[in-house]
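Q: Hi! New to this. If I give you a protein sequence and the SMILES for magnesium ion, can you show me the bound structure?
A: Yes, paste them in.
Q: Okay, here:
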Amino acid sequence: MLVLPVKNRTPDRPPENLVEVRDLHFSYEDNAVLKGVNLAIPRGKVVAILGVSGCGKSTLLRHFGGQLKPSRGSVTFDGQVVHELGNKRLYALRRKMGMMFQVSGLFSDLSVYENLAYPMREHTDLPEDVIHDLVLMKLHAVGLRGAHALRTGELSGGMARRVALARAIALDPMLIMYDEPFAGLDPISLNTIAELIRHLNDALGLTSVLVTYDVPESLKIADYVYFLHEGVVVAEGDVAEITDSKDPFVQQFVHAAPDGPVAFQYPSRPFPEELDLAQAEPPDESA
Ligand SMILES: Nc1ncnc2c1ncn2[C@@H]1O[C@H](COP(=O)(O)OP(=O)(O)O)[C@@H](O)[C@H]1O
Ligand SMILES: [Mg+2]
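A: Thanks. Here is the predicted structure of the protein with magnesium ion bound:
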């Protein structure tokens, strides 16, 4: 386990876990999505949260930045309970988080350079020459310094994802969150992004959380893995533990088996009942 026990903490040391999710419940109206999630993201680590589409991964991430409020439980970021913060402190907290979403959200009419300069101008008072150097440094980190003058609409999918990554680190966040960072990429771009996630985490001293359905790719770069299913964490471990796990749920995921604890069949009535076979009239022998 990466999570150190509470007694090791001293008041003058920040908590070991940058993020702690405790008994988190959340529903969209009557659709209960999160039903008591418990997990921790230790500082300096890359943590993957895996689960099928629709299991609530993006919903979970939206609690980190306080875009959603839990109906029960809490998310603590750097020692602060997110849902208890007022607007001003919430915005200050969000500045410590970078995000990279599948839908990159870049301004396609602007240049790569302007896409990165924008959040810096918006959130800091830095002079333009400092912004210039910072933008080029961030682009250099993702291998795209030479592409600064291109419009993002001209970029390939993999390059656009890298620009989004550079923008996510633009304000030197403590935490970077990736929502489906691998979706829709060709194998080479996918590997590039995966290696960048790991490399930037370690080189910049970040903490990273990625939510995805891509198990093999996550196992290549994560320090610790959680499996989310039906609103709770059903399995967790480091990569060796997950790879060797005999847990049927983990096995199904790691081997991408179509059926298992995650059922192939949508819940249904028994087939004979559904086809009305039980009620079928026996053939009339007398006719
Ligand atoms: N804004 C929303 N309003 C209502 N229901 C939503 C909303 N966003 C997601 N959901 C529902 O919540 C569940 C979890 O969605 P989501 O967190 O996006 O899953 P994931 O990211 O794991 O694919 C799904 O059933 C989805 O339909
Ligand atoms: Mg999602």
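A: The beta strands are 17-28, 31-42, 46-50, 72-77, 80-81, 97-101, 175-179, 207-212, 224-229, 232-238. Let me know if you'd like me to explain how to read the tokens.
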